[in-house]
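Anyone? Bumping this.
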Amino acid sequence: MALISDGRFIEDAWRRLADEEALPKTGKFIVSLPRLEHAVEVLGPTATFGVIVPNTTEPSALIAALPRLELISITFPAFADGRGFSLARLLRRAAFKGELRASGRLVADQYPHAIGCGFDTIEIPDDLAERQDEEQWRAALNAYSMSYQRGYAGRGSILEARRKAVRS
Amino acid sequence: MTAIDLHVAQRQNAPMTTYRYDAYDAAFVSERVAEFREQVRRRLSGALTEEEFRPFRLMNGLYLQLHAYMLRVAIPYGTLTARQMRRLADIADKWDKGYGHFTTRQNLQYNWPKLVDTPDILESLAEVEMHAIQTSGNCIRNVTADHFAGVAPDEIEDPRPTAEFLRQWSSLHSEFSFLPRKFKIAVTGAAHDRAAIMVHDIGLRIVRNATGEIGYQVVVGGGLGRSPFIGKVVGDFVPREDLLAFLEAIMRVYNRFGRRDNKYKARVKILVHEKGIDEIRAAVEAEFAAMDRSVFSHDPAEFERIAAFFAPPPFESLPEASALLRAAKLETPAFANFADVNVSAHKLPGYAIVTVSLKPIGGVPGDATSEQMRVLADASERFGFGELRVSHEQNIILPHVKQDDLFALWRMLDAAGLATANAGLVSDIISCPGLDYCSLATARSIPIAQAISKRFSDMSRQRRIGKLGVKISGCINACGHHHVGAIGILGLEKKGQESYQITLGGDPTFSASIGEILGPGVTAEQVPDVVEHLVDYYLAEREEGEAFIDTWRRIGHARFKDVLRREGEDGADI
């Protein structure tokens, strides 16, 4: 897998735990959603970790654990399945401040969408990373200077800019 | 000088009544072209597979059809300037085969562009403030509106500022560009629905509440296609203040819960149908209540900025009736027919709305040659403040023509083969491209439209029949809107043969209804006979001033079914 952050391919500091693997005491690890409750229980109250969730997850299922989560990875079963974008928005609305990761076969052209919805990082399979290199991801990040929506992250809002122009 | 004053001043120098790009809009569209140029290059280099490229080319209006690519150009809310129309003509000549096809969603399609040329075509469009953004794909599509917007006598408010506001809001939306399926929004501000809002994913009807405040009745879950549904009211009165937030709430509910397991069940109409409108309304209201609405709160200055572009052109104060028009009608019967059929009432005295039919007898519905496009552009400049509209009936509208000028306009149109006096009549047929172009089609549509049109080539007979909507689709996806045709025709394939299913009683307006199937399918050759028999039966049964659909509603479907049965007894194998 390759990890993209700020338009660059970077080393992944996190490790995905297999479900049969014992929970480590420390380190950056990611558990699956079914193990979330258990992990919260057995790990000390100060321990933080990550979770990987399907894009159909109800945000309410994560709310209780949010203070313990440093990373939430949302899977994209297909790149054109946009449910993950809405889930990311809802998690940001629920004040999740940690790393939000999109995991799946996303293509570089979706990078601005992901950033706009609150994702920080994108995790893609190696074969995709080979075809769509760092340069393409960076280009996608810079393809648009502004966006028409308000309240979405990343680029500046055209509506805001117009407001300012009218006021000045 | 404020930004708004500046725009008003600019408008006076270049009178045109549509939105004009500011630097932000222009930058956005040109960045879109640059991005697409890269996407094409990356597709050709193999960086993008065809599967990956597909949604991005679709969101730029590029389809792969039966014989070639097809590029669908957005004409937001169907409003065009003369300059834009000329550019469409130039593109048709330079990169296509000298013609274009106006669609039921107020867009224009080129049927023969080459993939490698499309970035240049998009760049050429951008120069005249046009694009092909979101005319296809599983995203919020080009927003349509009443083609009589701003000039209809029955209007509460021009729907185009709302439509433009939504065009911008929906453009490259971070969250709603990978929806379960396509999503179409239509807006009307009039008492009579000319935008078919009841059969859109979201229909917006501008209304006034008891205190005189403007707001929107929001209808959701209408649609045609293989399972037609009439939309249901999800918000009875949404104040303008809340419109964007309310739409975001609907879109989020749809994006999260719309079906993705079966593309034929993925439209919001199926979600509404399966869950029921009450559950959907509750979900939308819950989402609306939970969101931070301040970021979507209405920006009156921005709305006014947009609305200022749609200010009325510099109309003259004219008498109600034109003596010139009256005289010309008496003198030239062909013109009188045109004036009676293709001219509608304008909200101002002395002016008229002219429908230019793109349905010549035996022609291809909605097609216009580059030469005709230029004539239309010229005509709009000479007689109508340089403004044109595309109707969802696939015709061109000149929205502000002086009644005194109607005769001169008619002569100009007539010389270009654009004066067919059949607006709203039986030969003003809506038809999809069908098997002649489309890879989804199961049967031909254009030749059927042509055959019916020829059958009713006697124009006096057409006028006697009166308003009658015939709509033809070449497959169950229903691009020809057959479900809402008073007479609907659906082309299917049965055992390798084209078979046409006839429906009656469809209605695309506020009194929307889906047509009912008349009986077993008929062959392509039989379609004109069946339509003719149905029309003759209607003529025999109708009461004074009664339209086809009203006769059908009064006497019932069964009586019309007998017509088809008798058709069978005449020896036809149906």
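Late reply, but here is one note on the structure posted above: The CA atoms of residues 4 and 122 of chain A lie 5 Å apart.
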